[in-house]
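Objective 1b: paired records.
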Amino acid sequence: MKLGRFIREGMVMAAALAASGCASIREHRGYIVDQTLTTSVQAGIDNKQSVEATLGHPSFASEYGEPTWYYVSDVTARKPFVRPRIRQASVLAIRFDAAGNVISANTTGMERVVFLTPNGDKTPTLGRERSFLEDLFGNIGQVGAAGPGGGPGGSGGPPGS
């Protein structure tokens, strides 16, 4: 009798462990959004210093065009041993004028997320394909060879020659 109960309890425990292995793992990546803080940034009132004091340093800033700070947040979910998938995404873009005052603060979500599919395991490049041996032995005899301007009468010699 006790053996049957022990086997039943063991099977229940094994089923519980197997089910927990299939549970989704949620991860927060990037900026952790606090709605109270993000809605407190107002155009015409705040500047770069007040935005950084309120929200912290941005995830990244624009290099060209209007000065814009971006606060990027993703929530991913994945099953064990599977690539994570984005479940929620938000980007808070804060634009500044030349004086550093806030012009606008806009939030976008999953509608702007682009999913890219890589082109296989290799990155396509220009040029010809070379084998390992060509890479290894390809430069033999090339060191010190006359190149453009490096031959006799060229300007590639030592100074004063």
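Objective 1b, second protein:
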Amino acid sequence: MATTLNRAWALLFARLILGLIFFMAGVMKVFQMGPLEHARKYFLPFSDTFLPTWSLWAVGVTIPFVELIAGALVIVGLGTRGALIALGCVLVVVTFGHLLHDALYGFSGHVIPRLALLLFVLCLPREDDRFSLDNLLIGSQPNR
């Protein structure tokens, strides 16, 4: 019983920290910087690569909303698996982009901590995440 409760607390703290990291990045990029400026500042510098400019705009404008929405979902624990997969895709895009310009990019300070939290939450059994809306909604269903 104590082990299960410890896993529930561990999942809650990991979800909260990971969700806050992405949610606050999304808040800043959507409401302060603006999605267009985010794309212009962080994605258009890759127009010197093989990537088409339209794709840089599309991904650069979309990522802030993915971070905002998926981060919020991870915080409350609703649709957690899908939100984590979306955030994992963001991490792949960020890593790919950095490696395009610098094949020796040191992503250990940015990507690895987020990926570690993401994998931790994703790999533990869903039923251990007792302090989530997913668990509350599933737990209230008959014939679980």
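The chain is about 75% helix and 0% strand. Residues 2-33 form the longest helix (32 residues).
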